[in-house]
Amino acid sequence: MKKAYRIKKEKEFQQIIENKQSFANRNFIVYVYESPENTHFRVGLSVGKKVGNAVTRNYVKRLIRTSLYDMKGMIQPNYNIVLIARPQVINLSLEEVKKNIVHVFKLANLMK
């Protein structure tokens, strides 16, 4: 994903999480913050150490980024999103990851 679609700063992560508008399923937690100044959505990824070692965590992040890239036309603009992966995500394929992200985004009303 392009840099314009990423959230990297700790301050921005905290602002979104403190908003306390969260949605979850078995594999992902999503925190949402509406930001009218954005012309597109922005996503911050968090994959904790419980998921596995660095190689595993980076693999999971690549799966999530690929899924989001494929779905970018369907996601509502003007939102900042923090997507947190739970440890069960290790066992999922790319299609299952995409399906779970679509499910949790529908719960959060982020899909067009």
From TrEMBL:
Q: Which E.C. number(s) belong to this protein?
A: 3.1.26.5
Q: Tell me where on the tree of life, at the top rank, the source sits.
A: Bacteria
Would you indicate the residue range of the signal peptide? none
Please give the Gene Ontology molecular function terms for this protein. 3'-tRNA processing endoribonuclease activity; ribonuclease P activity; tRNA binding
The entry's keywords: Endonuclease, Hydrolase, Nuclease, RNA-binding, tRNA processing
GO terms of biological process kind: tRNA 5'-leader removal
Q: Which InterPro entries match?
A: Ribosomal_Su5_D2-typ_SF, Ribsml_uS5_D2-typ_fold_subgr, RNase_P, RNase_P_CS
Q: Which Gene3D superfamilies does this chain map to?
A: 3.30.230.10
Record keyword RNA-binding present: yes
According to the UniProt record, one GO cellular component term is: ribonuclease P complex
- Return the broad EC class: hydrolase
Which reactions does this protein catalyse? Endonucleolytic cleavage of RNA, removing 5'-extranucleotides from tRNA precursor
User: How is the subunit organization of this protein annotated in UniProt?
Assistant: Consists of a catalytic RNA component (M1 or rnpB) and a protein subunit.
HAMAP family given in the database record:
RNase_P
Which family does the entry's similarity section mention?
Belongs to the RnpA family.
> What does the UniProt record say this protein does?
RNaseP catalyzes the removal of the 5'-leader sequence from pre-tRNA to produce the mature 5'-terminus. It can also cleave other RNA substrates such as 4.5S RNA. The protein component plays an auxiliary but essential role in vivo by binding to the 5'-leader sequence and broadening the substrate specificity of the ribozyme.
What is the name attached to this protein's record?
A: Ribonuclease P protein component
**Gene name on record?**
rnpA
